[in-house]
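Apologies for my clumsy wording, but could you write out the amino acids of a protein and the tokens describing how it folds?
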Amino acid sequence: MTRFWLGGYGAAMDGSAEGIGLLAGDEGREASTLAYRGAVVETPSPSWLAQHPTLDVVYAALEGDSAVQAFSRAGEAALAPLGPPAAVGQYVCHVAVAPNGSALIASCYGDGRVVRFDLDADGRIVAPKPDAAAALRAALFGDADPDAPAATPPGDGVAAVDPYGVGGDRVSHAHAATFLPDGRVATTDLGFDLVRFWRQSGSGLTLDHEVVLPLGTGPRHMVLHPSGHLHVVTEYSCEVFTLAPAADGTWSVVSVTLTSPIAEVGTDFPAELARTRDGQFLYTALRGSNTIAALRVRGGGESLESVALADAGVDWPRHHLVHEGKMLVAGQRSDTITLIDLDERTGAPLGIRHEAQVPTPTHFLPVR
């Protein structure tokens, strides 16, 4: 049976989701019978979900509550809290779990924080340990210099600095994280036009280096290609930047491609970036025109080509997922999801096969 956990926005985020939901189809007729089966656990605005690689544990970014929480499987179609919520930065919008299940990275849109949590053997979130040395210094010598920069909280990566220094309304907006094969972590900062690369340590994250994208592009989400390239979609400029590592491990941009020749900057705002299992095609959703843009991966993964643009069938497609040759699309503002057929040869979306009512959907996660 085809089933998906569903993230969604609750009342605090102007939505109607009551928690993590379940989308499922009837046995043998999955494609034509996918329907919302209700909330499997009540929790406020679980806008992004991630699966532990080996355990029946799901992690949620509780965006409106500025917290992350773990949930364990409780039967075929239910989840239960696995420990209390862990406080994190403002408007946490993304969580990613290490391939070995050792850590979780939370990205916080509101204040730009990127936070690393250890995970224990049961998948529970372990709160970062306070800086004992700093606490001892404060106890012995009193408060620190009020003019000194604030200390980085335990588990946090160092705060981003605007590479353009233009001030005004520009603020840091961390948005997503991806674990790389060499153990490092890549994150996006939509507000400061940065793709940041981190090394993990026992104390959290250490900044390795940054790739600065053009002013005002707004890097949002990423997908790691089987070739080793990192594709990054930009919310404000409607582009996909392709990055590659040099021999010394330093990443840089190797190509830039429009999501679609007819995408309108300032009207269209790309959301998710997803790929087919074989890496032959990438797809991004354009909120605004409410379309799906398909791109073919060329060469050795270093270049892209726009191949099609099709109706998403929803309003404000916040997330989409390629699954078994089809695409699921979550319409945040229409309270619907659609199932779209894909042409295996050309990559083009072929049309909407199925539609279902869902309360303010924001993320799909296949039930393992």
Observations:
- The mean pLDDT is 94.
- The CA atoms of residues 112 and 172 lie 5 Å apart.
- The longest helix spans residues 132-141.
- The chain has one domain: 3-145+153-366.
